[in-house]
Amino acid sequence: MRVVLEFAPKGALRLPMHYNAALHGVLYRHLSDNRMRDQLHDHGLHRVGSKPVKLFTFSRLMGEYEIDSKEKTITFQGPVRWVVSSAVDQVIYDLSMTLLKAGRISLHGTEVQVRTASLERYSGTVTQGQIRLMSPITVYRTLNLPNGRKYTQYYSPGTPEFTELMRKNLLLKASALGLEVTEADAAFDLIPVDQAHMKERIVLFRDTPVHAWDGNFRVQGTPKMLALAWNAGLCMKNSDGFGLFDFFARGR
């Protein structure tokens, strides 16, 4: 399930160019269930072995904006939309009700009015389709260097490593939810429509650079796994604001 929120800022909404952490903070501050919030923040909603699985993601802000490259800021004029999605419905219910009851919240020091909160459920039956990314996708592996230090190796869409790690991540989410998966479920694919026009994005999350990708893609998989990816997010670092997508045309 996901919620589409509309915020109306009091004046211009000026944010740092890399504002994922600010949205991340809004989400955690406005979960009223303290136990669920602490579990989500500290350990993930579910665990598979030692791996915490958080099962939520969120979009970029959508609205009219101007970028100041010198100041490294982005300024939104007028209403903005923000989408939060989770494979655990209670997260979305709680967040939606808390924000609506609050009426006004602070986003990076600017007061914004919470105008609307619209819930959406995935009811598609398609096995493939073209998607639009509402936040970029990232896939990586942490490697141990000979000197004992760790190195994060990122992979671009269309490479075998990207596909392997993306599939493993989706199966991890399925396992966390107790879903039974078949061989067909495991054969999930994300295919660049135009590899020449893929864009690498380096997003700072609390000063840590994350290499992510935007572009036009097609997804192919079973309805069960497409629904899981739609709800919980594609690829990795979903809870930091990566991997939210929607279909250009979704079967219902």
Automatic annotation (TrEMBL):
Residues 130-246 form the CRISPR associated protein Cas6 C-terminal domain. NCBIfam families: cas_cas6. CDD domains: Cas6_I-like. Signal peptide: none annotated. It comes from Alicyclobacillus cycloheptanicus. The keyword Protein biosynthesis does not apply. This is CRISPR-associated endoribonuclease. CRISPR (clustered regularly interspaced short palindromic repeat), is an adaptive immune system that provides protection against mobile genetic elements (viruses, transposable elements and conjugative plasmids). CRISPR clusters contain sequences complementary to antecedent mobile elements and target invading nucleic acids. CRISPR clusters are transcribed and processed into CRISPR RNA (crRNA). Pfam families: Cas_Cas6_C. The keyword Nucleus does not apply. Keywords: Antiviral defense, Hydrolase, RNA-binding.
